[in-house]
Amino acid sequence: MKLDNLPQELDVKNVKEFYGALKEALASDDKVVLDFSKIKRLDLSIVQVIMAAGKEASGKSKVLKIKSISENLLKQLSICGIEKRKN
Amino acid sequence: MNEAELLKEVFIKEAKEIIDKVESSMVLMEENGDAGLINEIFRYIHTLKSGSGIAGFTDAYEFTHSLENLLDKIRSGELMTGKKLIDLLLGSLDLVKAILFENAPQESILGTKKSLLAQIEEYMATCRPDSAGTALLEPISDKKDTSDRDIEENIGYNFFKVHAEFREDIFESGIDPLMIMEDLYSLGNVIEQKILREKFPELDNMDPERCYTGWNLILKTKTSIQDIDKVFMFVRDDNVIEIEDVTSRYIVKDAGKNFFEEKRVGEILVSQGILSGKELSNVLAAQDIENKKVGDLVVEKGYATENEVKFALKEQADIKKRIEKSTVRVDTGKLDNLLNLLGEIVIGQSSITRIADELDEEKGFRLKNALYGLDRITREFQEQIMSIRMIPIGPTFEQFRRFVRDAAHSRGKEIVLDIEGGSTELDKTVIERIDDPLKHMIRNAIDHGIEPAEEREAAGKNRIGRITLKAYHQEGNIFIEIIDDGMGINKTRIREIAEQKGLLRPGEEISDSRLYSFLFLPGFSTAEKVGDFSGRGVGMDVVKTNIESFRGSVEIETKAGIGTTFRIKLPLTLAIIEGMLVRVGNNIFIIPLLSIVESLQPREIDIKTVEKKGEVILVRNEYVSLVRLYEIFQMKPVYYNPWESLVVIVESGFSEVGLMIDELLGQQQIVIKSLETYITKSRAISGAAILGDGRVALILDIHGLIEEIGN
């Protein structure tokens, strides 16, 4: 399932909606792809949800991917301890 | 006020100081392109960016982020500074001011922002664009330092252990811990990292609006612990933030003690990217043999210029000051209250002294002795409070760099501003009030003083004109000079206009200083044409009145073809003076001690009446105007004949008068109370004081009094 209608700014103001959407997506599909092509910035609340979702996906042998993520966002995730998997 | 509003308020105060410094540095950078300056500007913009983000000024945060990227290109040498780039930087700073301080309308901000970002983008065209890609993400295992702790590359770096744990409800105050950590990470290289996830819940159990993440890390950086601390400035109080300098674990310790002391200049040069670690090692090795200072060796070996070393030494001195002092912000209202209370203590002391006079000799003597001791403490207390209120005038002077640059450019002139004595300290209230008069006089110098470049060259002068702002202490006063090397003021022209206006008779002899003082009269202007800034003859009189309103005075010196100096004399403080109490009838006046030349009892033969000058008194073969204070203030004196009373000779500027009084009562320290709301303004009175017996004494303004009499 692709989550691609994400707003440009993902932060604590809309984290509840993001959280709800991601939970639902993971519950109903084995593969969830987040389209970050329009995302400029994340805040910690969003990264936490991604971390928790990633852990949940991993525990249930599901896949959580992020598509079109910029270098800037990768840097943000890396600060929180999440990195691009080397294939 | 809630937490978010308080955060914004604190940030705005900090931002104002930062922007003033950056603006001045940008103008200086255009003049001398110094590497130290660009690094300083970069750090300030970085701090401004962080603060904007944390305080919730998203527009300012985003824009300063772009500005920071541009500055990074300049400091790495990929972009060279020039007028166009400095214009862009200054214009960018104006936008930040508009966003933060001016509540400018959104449409105008957006338009300007778009235009500036486009210009920044043009300059950044050499950047590598960010690449996008698809990523499978995974948590990284905690980073561990595998570097050799003894290798040369660690020299010149600091290593800090940072522990950051944020409150769970931190998002509610509008703060994003990730933004803070991004700033921290941008200061160097994180060689060890552990993300604290002990509190992290399962996806189903998490409240997405709570913070569950913390950090333990080691940062390898060229910045100082103060800069690291600044990153957490707005969150320190309510969160667990620990910063520890662990550099000693990562650096080779040299046997010599000098390594760490001298290392600072070298370390600063390395942190500024001027010196490499290897070059510093070479210098330190040479130092062992040649026993010279690091700064000298660096220049000798061609690693850095003298200017760069000079800036590093200045930074070293600044760092030392920051380490030695810890400072706290104080509301000036609180200081004013303290001073008032001190004034009440002084009054209380006076009362007790009076009582001591009434006691028998032995008890009176013992009480007075005790009071002298108390008086010493009170004076020291007062000096401490006054010293808190004293701030250097440097930042006030620095803010004029941008003004001079822009004003000169708009006039098609080339002018630079020099500053001397920036560390001279004045009372905060005096500094606040001197701003406008200084600006006007600088405007005058730009408009009418400094010639256009071609004219200057034709006259054999340097094409770049100079305006110097100079401040110094002398004899209990502060002097501020505005000196230009322009064309000077035409003495003949002043005379012509003075005669036209009937201020002078043709051929009448007059001193230069008196002639130049006409320039301060309303409507008096020698300008051939009116400029945007000046020339209407309505400015200098306002400047003079302004300066006199806080017990200052201004005079002019000028030489045709050479230049002009405006010299302002100011009191050290507006709050306290040493005064001489004098009695006229039943009333007590206070004469500022600094204005008193001498006091005497004149002889009858020394009193004369001169046509058009009134009564005069002969003092040491010179006649001085006699002023009967009881007539000025319409009161009944004890003595009507000057030879029966006392005369106090007072001066202001070049003028002297003799004030006729009934009695000298003694010297006292006076805390000045303002009279504005209680009495109609009189130029002869500058305020009042409450005496020990509760009576009110008026404080004479000698300058104002002489002007009133002259009028």
Note the topology.
The complex is a heterodimer of chains A (87) and B (711).
Chain A (H helix, E strand, L loop, with lengths): L1 E2 L5 E2 L4 H14 L2 E5 L5 E2 L1 H16 L3 E8 H9 L2 E3 L3
Parallel strand pairs in A: 1-3, 2-4, 3-5
Helix pairs in contact in A: 1-2
Chain B lengths: L2 H30 L2 H21 L2 H18 L7 H18 L5 H18 L8 E8 L18 E8 L11 H10 L1 E9 L17 E8 L3 H7 L8 E6 L12 H14 L5 H14 L3 H7 L5 H19 L7 H27 L2 H29 E3 L1 H5 L1 H11 L4 E6 L4 E3 H22 L3 H6 L6 E10 L2 E8 L6 H10 L11 H6 L22 H10 L3 E7 L3 E9 L4 E9 L2 E6 L3 E5 L6 E4 L3 E6 L2 E7 H4 L13 E7 L2 E7 L1 E9 L13 E6 L5 E5 L1 H9 L1
Structural features, described:
The complex is a heterodimer of chains A (87) and B (711). Helices cover 45% and strands 25% of the residues of chain A. By secondary structure, chain A is of the alpha/beta class. The two termini of chain A are 22 Å apart. The model of chain A has no long low-confidence stretch (mean pLDDT 85). Chain B has a six-stranded mixed sheet with strand order 15-19-20-18-17-16. Chain B is globular. Classes of the chains: A alpha/beta (87), B alpha+beta (711). Chains A and B meet through helix 1, helix 2, strand 5, helix 3 and strand 6 of A and strand 1 and helix 6 of B. Strand 5 of chain A pairs antiparallel with strand 1 of chain B, so a sheet runs across the interface.
